[in-house]
Specification:
Blueprint: H1 3-13, H2 18-25, H3 29-36, H4 44-54, H5 58-62
């Protein structure tokens, strides 16, 4: 599962729109959308912002990534 797909799953489980997640993370909606589509390389800072907005540990978001890819 890619980071963007994992982000989408966590966002949808909480019933959040991309717009609301972007607002909570203090990021632009277009940025969140492009992350979910796998078009962005994120900084650790923005990963932490997204995890905080979802009220989950960063490890839950990055735990699904395969280090061999």
């Amino acid at each position: 599962m890619t980071f963007g797909a994992a982000l989408r799953v966590f966002r949808e489980k909480q019933g959040l729109t991309q717009e609301k997640l972007a607002e909570l993370a203090d990021l632009h909606t277009n940025y969140v959308s492009s992350v979910e589509r796998g078009e962005r390389n994120l900084s650790l800072h923005n990963i932490a912002r997204l995890a905080n907005a979802l009220a989950i540990p960063v490890s839950m978001l990055v735990g699904s990534l395969d280090p061999k890819q």
